[in-house]
Write a structure and sequence with these properties.
Helix content is 61%, strand content 7%. The protein is mainly alpha-helical and 134 residues long. The chain is elongated, with a radius of gyration of 20 Å.
Length: 134
């Protein structure tokens, strides 16, 4: 099976992650399901045709039916997650150059932790070390 090469927006990624956990009712039928998942129902309605067309999501039971993640959608989600983790690992590897230049251990360790968690970008981690941990 080919993995769709559609670049996912943050909203599409979030919706696919939620659909990976469970099927959801159509946005029109139960907007509270989306609100509880920190998804804007109007925004979901806007992106839904693209996801349906790309075959990443299927809708059963018509307009008031259930949304379900397809196998292609799961593959696209895993591909996006892999890309995100690859970028994070590359940032960690690049940060090792900062540490190798003799950065203070405490700020470097904290910055590395935040970088590996995905909470900071490489630039933020390097700035933290350059500022001496302040």
């Amino acid at each position: 099976m080919l993995v769709p090469s559609l670049a996912l927006s943050p909203l599409q990624h979030h919706l696919l992650r939620e659909l990976d956990l469970c099927d959801l009712p159509a946005p029109e039928s139960e907007p509270a399901s989306y609100t509880a998942r920190d998804l804007d129902t109007d925004a979901v309605r806007d992106i839904l045709p693209t996801l349906l067309w790309a075959g990443l999501v299927e809708q059963r039971g018509g307009g008031q039916g259930t949304l379900r993640l397809t196998a292609a959608g799961a593959a696209a989600l895993r591909s996006a997650e892999c890309d995100e983790l690859t970028a994070r690992l590359n940032a960690v590897v690049s940060f090792s150059d900062t540490v190798a230049r003799g950065a203070a251990p405490r700020p470097a360790g904290y910055a590395l932790k935040r970088l590996a968690e995905g909470a900071w970008t490489l630039e933020q981690a390097q700035a933290h070390v350059a500022a001496g941990g302040e």
